[in-house]
Design brief:
Layout: H1 23-26, H2 29-44, E1 49-51, E2 61-66, E3 78-90, E4 95-102, E5 105-115, E6 117-123, E7 129-135, H3 136-149, E8 165-166, H4 167-174
Antiparallel strand pairs: 1-2, 2-3, 3-6, 4-5, 5-8, 6-7
The structure holds nickel (II) ion (NI).
Length: 181
Amino acid sequence: MALLEVEKLGSPILRKIAEPVTLEEVIDPLFQSFIDDMVETMEKFDGVGLASPQVSKSKQVIVARSNTNARYANTPDFPLLVLLNPNITPLSDVMIDSWEGCLSVQDLRGKVSRHAKISVEGFDRRMNPVFFEAEGFLAIVIQHEIDHLNGKVFLDRMSDLSTLSHLAEFSRYWMPQSAKA
Ligand code: NI
């Protein structure tokens, strides 16, 4: 496995629409190790999710996993998720606000509104179809990562830029008390 370089805001690939993954690609061992590299890279940098365009491949691949880490100290855990060619449908008009960050947008957090509950359709890393519903933090992460496949970053979703904060100021002024522990 290898660590991949994470593209930062300003890199044109972050603004491109990612191509769907094909069955031919999925059966290529190199593609499977690319997915492993994405997982390793996400974990190395304490991310809860990573989308393929962030590591210079404009393909519809996202990975996500949450376990308590330094960047997200007070978030629910969920097991590793690898999704190819994902699509989401909102299941409710209820929106939830939360603070988001991004490995491609260094040192910033901002408040973003997302659908509280979604259904997710796509394929696993072996191209088996998957369908499930997600809510809360998992739903937020999936929406954030799928945005990357459509050339969007969380800044584009902010309706009020006044909450945009550097990490140190976020911790000092905005982080919920319980998360500081
Ligand atoms: Ni991101």
